[in-house]
């Protein structure tokens, strides 16, 4: 990684970082690769941090952090992405299970795990770490989204799609630019030049339905794949195939 030095170490929010268990001395002792990530605004490797669960309750959990600059006051703040050591989604609502199994981030006002406490936020599966990640919805995240609104001149209604497993595509000089929350990305917000299909490919998402010439590989609730012959498609799969065809024709 090339060191871009977006943030100097003098700008690090040491007092705020101390509240999550990272003293200034601990930060100074971080491996150079991790310090470079912080200076570049990239998420660190997971480390044991104190996670605020709301209502004055906290817990220790594996989490990554990255730094952002507030466009309003130019101050540097941190964003925490906690990792919950479980990938069992059986207690999650069915529609949320589907989205998480496909690799999407899911926003929930109600806590879906004890680590979240009372905090609303985004959840997403990380298959390589075999865990569910959680990022609280915070003032820092809202500032990042407002920065997009102001810079790209899009409506708040469009940005709200990001809170509902959605992607937002805008056009600059006739070329598509797509935004989406992705806790597996370096900053929690993935922005790519391309449309929604391009975004999903770059994010490495597994679609629920992967249609072929003779049938379809369907993503199961456990994250595995099941082959469905074309003559066994149900109504949902037929509708998904129609939408996939329409989207392919519009590209």
What does the model show?
By secondary structure, this protein is an alpha+beta fold. The protein has helices spanning 14-19, 24-28, 32-39, 94-101, 139-152, 156-160, 196-203, 235-250, and strands spanning 47-54, 57-69, 76-84, 106-108, 121-126, 131-136, 168-172, 175-181, 189-193, 209-211, 215-219, 225-229. The chain has a 6-stranded antiparallel beta sheet. Strands 7-8-9 form a 3-stranded antiparallel beta sheet, covered by helices on one side. A 3-stranded antiparallel beta sheet has the order 10-11-12, with helices on one face. The longest helix has 16 residues, at 235-250. The protein is globular. 25% of the residues are buried.
Supply the number of helical segments: 8
Summarize the amount of helix as a percent range.
25-40%
Mean pLDDT: 79
Q: In order across it, which strands form the biggest sheet?
A: 1-2-3-6-5-4
Radius of gyration: 20 Å
- Going by helix content, strand content and strand pairing, the class is alpha+beta
Tell the overall outline: globular
Strand content: 25-35%
Low-confidence stretches: none
Q: Tell me about the biggest sheet?
A: 6 strands, antiparallel
Span between termini: 34 Å
């Amino acid at each position: 990684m090339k060191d871009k030095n977006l943030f100097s170490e003098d700008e690090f929010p040491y007092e705020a970082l101390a509240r999550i268990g990272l003293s200034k001395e601990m930060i100074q002792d971080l491996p150079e690769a991790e310090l470079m990530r912080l200076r570049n605004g990239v998420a660190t490797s997971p480390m044991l941090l104190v996670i605020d669960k709301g209502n004055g309750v906290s817990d220790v959990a594996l989490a990554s952090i990255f730094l952002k600059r507030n466009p309003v006051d130019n101050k540097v703040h941190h964003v925490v992405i906690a990792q919950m050591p479980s990938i069992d989604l059986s207690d999650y609502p069915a529609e949320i299970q589907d989205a998480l199994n496909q690799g999407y981030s899911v926003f929930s006002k109600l806590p879906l795990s004890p680590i979240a406490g009372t905090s609303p936020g985004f959840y997403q599966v990380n298959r390589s770490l075999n865990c569910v990640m959680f990022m609280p919805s915070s003032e820092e995240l809202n500032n990042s989204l407002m920065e997009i609104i102001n810079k790209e001149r899009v409506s708040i209604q469009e940005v709200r799609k990001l809170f509902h497993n959605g992607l937002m595509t805008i056009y600059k000089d006739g070329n598509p630019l797509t935004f989406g929350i992705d806790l597996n990305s370096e900053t929690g917000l993935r922005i790519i030049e391309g449309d929604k299909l391009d975004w999903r490919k770059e994010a490495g998402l597994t679609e629920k339905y992967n249609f072929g010439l003779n049938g379809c590989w369907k993503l199961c609730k456990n994250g595995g794949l099941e082959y469905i012959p074309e003559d066994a498609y149900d109504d949902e799969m037929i509708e998904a195939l129609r939408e996939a065809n329409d989207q392919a024709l519009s590209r």
